Structures are given as structure tokens and as C-alpha cells.
Amino acid sequence: MRICEIFRSIQGEGLTMGLPTTFVRTVGCNLRCSWCDTQYSMEGGEEMSLDEIMEVVGDARTVCVTGGEPLLQPDMPELIGRLLDAGKRVVVETNGATDISFVPDSPMVMISMDVKCPSSGMTDRMLESNMRIIRAKDQLKYVIADDADYEFAVAHLRSHSPEASVIFTPVGGTERLEWLVARVLEDGIEARVLPQLHKIIWGDRKGV
Q: What is the spatial distance between Cα 9 and Cα 1, in angstroms, rounded to a whole number?
């Protein structure tokens, strides 16, 4: 498996924000979002066997597989299975343009799936079939830059009525939070408005 980095930190996004987590970041992505903050994961890295990855993960209780797009890795189903067999809680971060149907329906697995808004330039790449798979234990993330993104996200939620928890985050992770909160409160949207905690703590750094 092609690995960009493995590191221990706290989760900076979503429902498990602040939780100590070991991140396994793979190399490569099938999207090119305009505001991507992990461009460095698009190429490079090193080949690691599943045994090597498991050794580095060690006794971590929570593991987040991320990218890039981790579900593009052929060995990802086996890695998720081994993490579960080892008693890990697994968060699978995915971009919404990759089939999630093979991810185990386990209470120990949370899918964290993006829905790309218009400012990303990738909205037409979303797999609508994934919206029929996402479950109440999972989360949907909308990264929002402007009014057009916000209105798209609200319309998308109203058309699908997902059971999963919904996260709205501003582009950049820390700016325009007040504006986004005001819109959500004004419209009565059942979404959590959250920053990216790791950027508040460390700024735009790798490996955190």
C-alpha cells in the first residue's frame, strides 16, 4: 500500500474532534478540489506492507484512514479488516466520489464522507449511490466557501434527508465561522458547524 504518512495526533474534524487518533494517510486521489489542503498526498510516499502499517499503528485505539482518497488503495478492505480484528475503532475518510459499499457495516467503523460543493469544482463527480449506503453512525461533511455552496448543501440535505450526522465547515477550516453559524441558525438547518481544530492549534502543518 502506498503510504504518505502515519502519525498520532487528535482528530481535527467532525464528530470525533479532539479524540486521540492515529492517522494512516495514503497516496493518490481521483479528485482535484480547488481548495485541497493535502496536495502533498497526491504523489510520492512509500510502499508499506499491511504488517508494517499495523506495526506502526501499534496499540492505538482509534485509527483514521485518510488521503488523498484511501478507498482507491486495493488493499484497503484488508487493512480495515485487520484493524477491526485488532479491536480498533476505524474512521474512514472518503471524498464522496468513490464507492463505499465495501466498507464493513460495523459499529466500530464510521464513514466520514464529503459531499463536494460547487466551489470545489468536483460536484459532478459525486456518487449519488453512496447516499443510499451512508448510515446513522456515519457523518457527511460539506466544506463551504460562499452562499452558492451553502445553498447547494442545504438543497442536497433536503433532497436526501440523510440519517447520518451533518457537518458544515468553512473552506480553510477556521475562517467565516460566524457567517456560517448565522446562516444555519437563520434557516434552522440540523447541521453541526465545526472548525478544523488541528489548524486552530498548529496552523497549516503536515503530520498533525
A: 22
Distance CA 30, CA 67 (A): 11
Backbone angles phi, psi at 199, to 5 degrees: -75, -30
Distances (CA, A) of 84 to 45, 104, 119, 137: 25, 10, 36, 16
Are 22 and 5 spatial neighbours (Cβ–Cβ below 8 Å)?
no
If phi > 0 it is left, if psi is from -120 to 50 it is alpha, else beta; for residue 68 that is left
Rounded to whole angstroms, the Cα distance separating 115 from 122 reads: 9
Q: What is the pLDDT confidence band of residue 207, given thresholds at 50, 70 and 90?
A: confident
Q: pLDDT tens-digit profile of 142-157?
A: 999 999 999 999 999 9
Pairing state between β 46-47 and 2-10: antiparallel
Nearest to 179 by CA among 164, 166, 195: 195
What span, in angstroms and rounded, lies between the C-alpha atoms of 54 and 80?
Answer: 11
Q: How far is residue 147's CA from residue 122's CA, in Å, rounded to a whole number? A: 17
C-alpha cell at 5: 504518512
Return the H-helix or E-strand segment holding 184. Answer: helix 177-187
Separation between Cα atoms, residue 78 and residue 62, nearest integer Å: 17
Q: Is the pTM of this model over 0.85?
A: yes
Q: Per DSSP, what are the bridge partners of residue 166?
A: 140
Closest by CA position to 122, among listed 131, 132, 114, 112? 114
Tracing cell 458544515 back to the chain, one arrives at 168
